[in-house]
Here is the input.
Amino acid sequence: MVKLLTGNELLRGDVLWWDGKGWSLSIADAVALEPAEGASILEREAAGERISDLALIDAEVVGGRFRPVKIRERIRGFGPTVRPDLAVAEQDWR
Amino acid sequence: MYQYDNIDQAVVDARVAEYRDQLERRLSGALDEDHFRPLRLKNGLYLQMHAYMLRVAIPYGTLSGQQMRMLGHVARRYDRGYGHFTTRQNIQYNWIRLHESADLLAELATVEMHAIQTSGNCIRNISSDQYAGAAVDEVEDPRPWAELLRQWSSFHPEFSYLPRKFKIAVIASDTDRAAMKLHDIGLQIVQRDGETGFRVYVGGGMGRTPIVAPVIREFLPAGDFLSYCEAILRVYNRYGRRDNIYKARIKILVHDLGAAEFARQVEEEHAHVKTLGLDAPEAEIARIRDFFAPPAFQTGLSDTLDRSDPDFALWPDFALWPDFALWVDRQVVAHKVPGYRIVNISLKPVGQIPGDASADQMDVLADLAERYSFDEIRVTHAQNLVLPHVRAADLKAVWEALNAAGLADANLDLATDIIACPGMDYCTLANARSIPVAQQLARLLAPRESELGELKIKVSGCINGCGHHHAGHIGILGVDRKGNENYQLLLGGSGAEDTSLAQILGPGFDEAGIVGAVERVTTAYLSLRADGERFLDTYRRLGAAPFKAAVYGAAVNGEAAHG
Here is the structure.
């Protein structure tokens, strides 16, 4: 189990993932964080007020890719399951 | 239709300007999110799973062609080409960009629309009968009263921070097409000895604690309309639970006090409020009524759909147009004026997302309203649309246009006409996805929908019940079970005049399991029903036992029930 840092971008509300240097639209770019490190980045980014709903979430590594543990986070990461044309990632959300 | 006066327009324009300033301060960093969030929510803008969602109010579900065209424009310009009609007769957009939201609201204001009071603990959009002004069975058009409530409740300073959100419905028929008894206040226009008044229901609702509203006043004279509503809200505002969000709705207060004691307190408050001169003068009511005067219906039209009638010489041979014939049978209902019909438009194509319409479809609907329905469209709480005033002789032309736009499905109140909330595909509150379940059920049941007859299936993705699962003949509630989606099956609900609350049948299911369970329920119904019985009738006659046996007796591997 690893921790990923995620949030929603202020202007568009896009789901973002911390990639080690900044924010990415793709969960494929996310980096695993130690809890203390993640909490520190979260606090810093929250203070910047450009990312909303910041959260450190649990994820597994499956087939070399991060897979959020909670279904909600998987759907956040990959887009609405009922509109694949609007999805942001091709990964199977399941 | 009601049209804004200078005051209405000034209020909405001022709100847009105020919001634009708030937004600019947020974008500049002068406002932080904690302070901005309640401000954007007061303008209907939520941050959901993937993006911002804007909920636009459609007062009592009534739209003009121009307004529908604007909704299409918003979908195209500010969203991703579609919108989602909701169970509160509103529309939601799922992909709004925050920095464009003030421009969007400004455009809406140009056609007398806004998103005010579509969020928060205030009086929400007033809902009504989608057949208002056209229904054969109505006492009168309920919309002037709904409009009066809209004006009274908009920015009402005393009721902007209620214990919880507050929903009001107004209808004027014994047939309830608005789930009136499942509202915080349900108002039914009735007549007594030639006088028009209201039967007042208070304390209904779905959600976590579903309750059918009791009557607290059998006949409220029309002259006391606003002051009595004010009294109800005052009692609620004073005594509603603010300490517990789950007990904060008025239904809990009414239930805890008892309807009689609640009514007594309202009457006592009303005796005071009545002296304040809050009730609208007759001239104001007449002014509002004028906006809802019947359109210029043609007179002398034949009311038959018989093709041999000379008035219908242009009608096609039904035998050559079976899809049209089926659509007429299922989607078209009687109108109060001879020669006219009410046309129901399905937003439930089998396998598609319930309630969604594309920008192009909205343009088609706007055109049809302007050309064939005296410039009126209605939104239903079942996530469908209505053209309320169509000449019978124009039905074929309307059908052809709808068919070309993918809007001619014929499934009103049938098994594929499923209500579904956005669920966990979009909504941050949801615990499970609703739409995929509805899609699978529609595909499964479509071949049998004629045989099954009236069957209202309603799917919610969480206990808040936006999908009205408690009012479903078959209701489905998505819950979280140890991190997995789980679906409870409920039977026996109704949001119609025979209102009842669906009851949980037994342990829940996973996604595949709930679809199989509903299939077994419907199969059992077909074997159990008596002549002429709807599913709901059979359930009420026999109770849950035979359906429970059908569902749980047949549990198989891979869809085992979970408690």
